[in-house]
Structure formats: structure tokens, C-alpha cells
Amino acid sequence: MAGASSGGNSAYPSFSSRIAFIIVTAGSAVGLGNVWGFPYVAGQNGGGGFVLIYLLALAFVAAPAFMAELMLGRMGKASPPNALGRLQAKAGSRLHWPLVGWTGLVGTILVLSFYAVIAGQAMDYAIEAAKGGFAGWSDHEVQALDADFKSSMPMMALWSAIFMGLTALIVSFDINTGLEKAGKVMMPALLMILLGMVIYSGNTGDFGAAVDFLFGFHKMDVTPRLFLEAVGQAFFTLGVGVGGIMTYGSYMGSNVNLPRATLWIVAMDLFVALAAGLAIFPLVFSSGVSAAAGPGLVFLTLPLIFADIPGGAVVAFAFFLLLTFAAVTSSISLLSPTVARLEEAGWSRRKGAVLMASLAVIISLLTAYSFAGGKHVFPLAALGLDGMTFFDLIREGVSNFILPLSGLAYALMVGWALSREEVRKALPMEDGLMFRLWHGVIRYVAPICITALFIGAVAG
Ligand code: TRP
Questions:
Q1: What is the pLDDT of residues 254-266, one digit of tens each?
Q2: What are the TM regions of this chain, as residue ranges (predicted)?
Q3: Which pTM value belongs to this model?
């Protein structure tokens, strides 16, 4: 079997410390999903009620699955397809586990393909901000900046290539010099900028309105679709379901307490999402624009706000730098699984990283096209998916299908195929209430919720 080439586990790479593992893996979780995605998804879905469902989805579905994925990685100590192949043998299962690993690898490149375009726009805006910010810009100018970016295929392709080049550069080094250094520099910087922004917003904007919006209860329609959105967002934000977490898990030392590390990472991810909301919404409410602006919240609404607040240029630069850092620490986790698999096939990290990053850039042209000339091209309209561009299909296909279905597969592997004792020792956890709770969730709650969700989505 191909995985055997990495079988001499003493040489298998590992993060240099517990804290390094937590920072780098939290970096994978904290990304565009938190800073760009969460505020607009919460905004579109009415705030408080959505946030509550999102919290439940995190706690009872996505976080337990995250823990399962980490554990599978540490037990399998290889790239996702080979790690799962080993564990299949161990469990004596006749199902083809590596298939879930391969699907995940496809998922990583698909996520990267749209991630790169959005991160590219963030980088472009950071430069725009550095050139003097958006000070005094009119509504019209801000819209033109966004429209210019989104209508120019060469511009988007260029930024996507720059972003993926940076990602490939970091991933081409060994684990400790590449991933780990990047996390140790960018994550603390990101947290500092974010805290600074929350304080600034709290002082300049309408903090009370933001808190009420995010945590207050407002009348809303509770539909199956809303649950699907919440679960999709929960999976996406933790980055569960494509093998990125499994790959980082394979680099996790056996001395790291896996359940406790999971708690830290999930807490950090949640903190960043809520803090991003508290950095953005006070400004949104005090300027009187709509909180439900959708995906344009960050690239249309915010620059307009930065245009006429004191110190707007500095705030704007800090914000888009924050977005860029968040994106890079996530994209390196998305490039790592395929590179790990190619390494097992004898490739150097550099060659693997360049090849897979190039592939992501090529596929990113589909997203670029969806923003530009293909804005009204709906490839699956005949299948009833009218109104969905390539970008919508890729993004929703990954978030609403690949991620939850892989999550379901991980839950079944860990909850049913591997023995309870084996799993308990691998974590390791004492045979107490916490373990029983988690194991029950992995065995029953998560699989039932995910299945129910699909039935609801298909029926609804
Ligand atoms: N979690 C990251 C974010 O919130 C993105 C991400 C990293 C991701 N790894 C992933 C999304 C794996 C889906 C699958 O932006």
C-alpha cells in the first residue's frame, strides 16, 4: 500500500510544542469564514436567532466532528487517504475509507479556488488602504472599486496567483519552519488587530445595537434551510471535513491532550467570529447602512464607513491586513493535505505545493468568471439550481455537502467502526461523563442531525 512509504513513524514530522499545534490549528479554523463570512451570514439571517442555532451546530455537530477528525489524523499518521486506509485495516471494515480522504482532497482544492479570489480582494484592498485609505471616498467610488475588481478576470487571476504563491511558499518549507512560523507570527498579530478594532468600534460606533443584533432575539423564520446554513457555517469555520484537520492531527504529538486542545481551538474560533461581528456591526449601525448587506458587507459597506471615520485609513489597512492573515493561516491548512499525499509518492514539498497551488489558481478562474462575465451563467439551471453561478455551486457544494457528509463519515468511523476503548485511549480521556457525552454525540447525535438535515433540505 502506498502509505507504507511513510511507515517509519520516527521520521514523521511533528509540531514542536503543544502551543505550536494549537496556534497553527486555530489558524486553520480562523479564516475568511470568521471575518468575512460569519458577520454577513448572521446579518442576512437576522442575527441573534441564527447565532443561537449556529452555537448549537458548533457544539453538537461540528466541534465533536472536528475532534474526531483530529483523532483520525493522529491515529493514522499519514495523509488523509492513507491515514484512513490504515485505520480501515485496523477496524477491519469492508467499506472503502480512503474514498472519504480522496473526496476531501478534492474539497481542499475547491475551497482554495474561491478562497484565493476573496483573499486576493482583501490584499488588493489592503494596498488601496495603504495608499491613503478610502478617506473621503464617495459611495460611487467604493462601488467602482469593488466592481472594477470583480469585472476584471486578469486582476482576479493575478491576485489569486499571488495569494496561492504565498501559500505555496509557506507550505513548501518543512512543518516547523513553514506552517509553524507563519502561525506564530500571523495569529498573534491577527488577535491584536481584532481586539484593537473592537475597542475602536466600541468607542466610535453603536456598540449596543451590535450586541442586540448578535445576541438579542428577533422574530425570524426557522426553516430547514436555516439549519443547513448554520451547520454549513459551523463546519466551514472549523474547517472540518476535507482532511486539513486530519493532516494537522497527524503532526500532533502524542503528548498533546486532544480534547483540551479542541476546546481551545473551538473557543478561539468562536471568539474571533463574535469579535469580528463586534468590530463590524457597531460601525454598520452607527452609519445607518443595512446589516443584511450580504457578501458585500466587507468590500462595499466597510470601505464606505472607513471613508468618513477618524483614522479611517489606518483602520482600513489594519482590517484588510487582518483579513489577509486570517486567509493565509487557513489556506496553508488547505494546501497541506494534498502536499502530504504527494510527499508519500516521493515528491518534494516544494514541487507538490507548486503543482497543487497552480491547480487551485486554474480552478479559481471559475469563481472569477462567476463575478465577471459569468455573473448570469447558471450551469446547473436545468437541474433546478437556477440562479447559482459556478462560485455559488462550488461554495455551497463544499459547505453543504462535502463537509457535512465527510463529518458524518468521520463520526461513523469513530463512533461505530473503531472500538470504544481504542478511541478512548487514543484521545486519551478517562471513562467519565465527558467521554460518554462526546462518544454519545459522535455515535448518535451528530449522525442523526446531519442525516435529518439532508432529509429536511431535500424535502424542503
Ligand atoms: N476555517 C476557515 C475559515 O473559516 C477555512 C477553512 C480552512 C476550511 N480549512 C477548511 C473550510 C477546510 C472548509 C474546509 O475561513
A1: 989 999 999 999 9
A2: 19-39, 51-74, 95-118, 156-173, 185-202, 230-251, 263-285, 305-332, 353-371, 401-418, 438-459
A3: 0.94
